[in-house]
Every structure is written in C-alpha cells, then in structure tokens.
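Following up on my earlier thread - several people asked me to post the actual chain instead of describing it. Fair enough. Here it is, all 484 residues.
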Amino acid sequence: MAGAILAIDQGTSNTKALLVAPDGEILARASRPMETSYPRPGWAEQSARGLWAGVLAVIDEVVAAGHAVAGIGLSNQRESAVIWDTASGEPLGPCVLWQCGRSASRCEALKAQGHEAEVVARTGLALNPMFSAGKLAWLLDQDPTLRERAGRGEVKAGTVDAWLLWKLTGGRRHATDHSNASRTQLMNLQTLAWDPEMARLFDVPLTVLPEIAPSDSLFGQTAAGATTLPAGVPIHAILGDSHAALYGHGVESPGRVKATCGTGSSLMTVTGARVRSAHGLSSTIAWSRSSRVLHALEGNISVSGQAFAFVGQLLGLEDEAALTALAASVPDSGGVCVVPALAGLGAPHWNDAARGLVSGLSLGSTPAHLARAALEAVALQIHDVFMAMQADLGGVLPELNVDGGAARNDLLMQFLADLIDRPVRRPDTAEVSALGAARLAARGLGFDLALGDGADRVFTPAMTSQVREHILAGWRDALRRAML
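Reply from S.P.:
Thanks for posting it. Predicted structure:
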C-alpha cells in the first residue's frame, strides 16, 4: 500500500494529528490547544468553528511533511453536541461540551416523570446531562424555527465526529459510528439504531440525526478545497476517543481494562455482549466492524486531570510540572482531601448537585498538601470506577492500562497502582487514541498497521493495606460531605 494513515484526534483540550506509516513509524505530528468557555456556572462550551479550525491547522502541518496520505481515521471527544445549517455548513450555536450541565433540568424532569429506568434499559446510560440528547434539545430550543426547519432537512445535528465529517466531505456525508452514537442517549443498544421513543422524550427530531455506520466504514472522501489534502482521500474509521484508546491498547476481548486520563477520565473494558451495570457504570459500544459489534462497560469521570490543573492555577503555579514537584515535596496529603466535583460527580456516583470540596485542613496544612491532595483525587476517582467495574464483572481485573496526558505523571501513576493494588501499565506513547483510530482505518483499508515495539512502563503497588484503607476512609468521608 502506498501512503500513510492520517489520524485526527479531536479532544477537549487539544486537537492532534499523526501521520503513521504502515510499519507504525510516526512520520509527522501536530497539536493545537482548544479553548473552552464557561458562560455560566456548570456550563461549558467550545466554538464549533474553532473545532474545525483546529483540525484544519493540524492537517496543514502534517501534510506539509510531504508524505502521501492513503486514508484517514478520526477519534473525537464524545457526547459534545453541534447543530448546523445544511446549506451553508455554518454552526447554529456553540459546541456544547460533554462536561456541560445546562440540560440538567431536562434530565431531572424526565427522572421525576419516571423515565430513568426506561432510558437506561434502552440506551445503557444514566439520565445525566453529560450525554448528548439533552444538549441537542437545548440547542434546538434556542430558536423556535429550528425544529420546523429540521423537518425540511435544513438543519443537521450530531456529535463532534459528525460535524467534522460533514466539513471534511464538503457536506456530502452526514454520519456517525456506533461508538459515538452509543453516547448520545438516543441510540438503542439492542437495535443499534436511533430510538424513536428516546427522540420523542428528548424532543430531538430524528431527521436531524446522522446515519449510524460501523466504526471501520468508508465514511466518505475528502472534498476538493475542504482541506489541504487532495480530494478523494478515504475516511475509513471513526471512533469516540475513549473507544479509540481501547482499540489502541489492543483490548479486543474481555478481561482487560484501560483508563484514559485527560481532562476527565474514562475507564472502559470490552464485555462482548451487553453487561447491565449494578454499580453505576454505563453499557456502551466499544466499536463495530462490518461483521462484528463489541459491547463495553464504561465509567466516566467528569473532572480528572483538569482538577489538578485547576488547583495549580489557584496556587499560582506555572504548569503541571511545578504542581507535581510541589506535590512530591511531601510524602502524603497531611489529611487534606480534595473532591473535584467541579462539574458534579460522574461514575459511579452520578450526582449533578455535588460541588468541589477541600476537607481536612489544619494549621499544619501547606500548599504542598493541597497539591498532593489534588493529585491523589485523580487516582481516588479512578479507584472507585475500577472497583465498580470489578464488581459488575464478578472477577479480579489483573492490571490497568493507562493513556492520556495525566498518565504521563509518574507520581500519579504510582499512587494509582498503590490505590487499586494492581500494576498500572503505560505505553511508551501518549497518543493512544490517535493510534487506535489509525489502526482501525488501516484495517478498513485492508491491512494491519504495525504496533509500536516500545517498552511499556509498569508501576507496581507498594502501599500497605493499612495505609490504603486509611486514605480511602478519608476519601469516602469527603465524598459524603460533597454530596450533602
């Protein structure tokens, strides 16, 4: 095969692109930061135009390396919602982020009406503003003409992948894959199609939604002039970023779990068939191919690495390295505990009303103790989801595979291994989501992309059970206070 795979990874904090040769060598890479706005407490949004501009910028940079591109794989931040004008291709509102709670009142109303059990049964997802359905409804509510226009085909809607696909193909394809569709709260996990009853409950017209296709489908081709790529480059994989990371880790059968540690965190494991969680996790689709659909179990943490950065800003520190150095200057948090419920609490607690909390302060507390507590909070949240996943699966998970920006923090990864009492395995590359998208695109094109042969770093548990239980007891007490 001539040419490389272009992997586009559009995340909450950054938009990245990798150009990957068939032998797995990364020929070029580019990254652009994303800006998030918080117009009201609990709200979070990005510019839909800004998302596309970031994608154009990273494509420009990697294409400038001069390598031929055989195909494209796309991974994206999930649940975030966009609506746009069919004719002009211009957005009709902001991109409402997955972290945003502006649809909380709609979710609470549906709970009060007794719909939560039905929603979970059909979609696998808790009635929570994290998911796309309420966001799409809110966007459509902003203009009373939009639903009428939708009936005439004048309005399109979708998650970030559908928006970017529309732009890449010059408006020729309005589609998404099963992994992204499974995060909208509008797809039925049994039929793998849009659920008319869910669309009715959330007041989202089916006419605005994209076609759902297997993750390794031929989703279209680049349009002339849409980017600096030539016309006709096939887009042969779309995956939500957490699903792409799972695929990038090579997790294709039950028994292994990965944690993507970024702005928020996502723990996911393949289950084969659907598993209905009894411990606050979501049933979802890992990915799909034309001949196979894999289900997964997932726990989403709303604020993870972002909380560490947030505390760093409060302390006036320049960057994560300075915050980590401060946290490492003390052996423990000195009894200080941070609950990073800055956008409520996600899995396994699912409490939208919870708010951020710092507890255990004393006259002996120092900025270093606060920094240490913020770092530990990232791992404590992951611990809770990991244990919930073990309980749902009814067995011991032997280790945890990690990726994402926060996973590059050695102090955090060691503390995580200590907390879950399992080895934590980190690959030598931080770009696992992008590589997962590239790997699936290559398979769609008919070949296997060689996996990297770099050595993984393994963090081995070293904490005593007494210390572990003491830390967890303090965390449980702080959680209870944050949810009062």
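The two ends are 59 Å apart (CA to CA). That should answer part of your original question.
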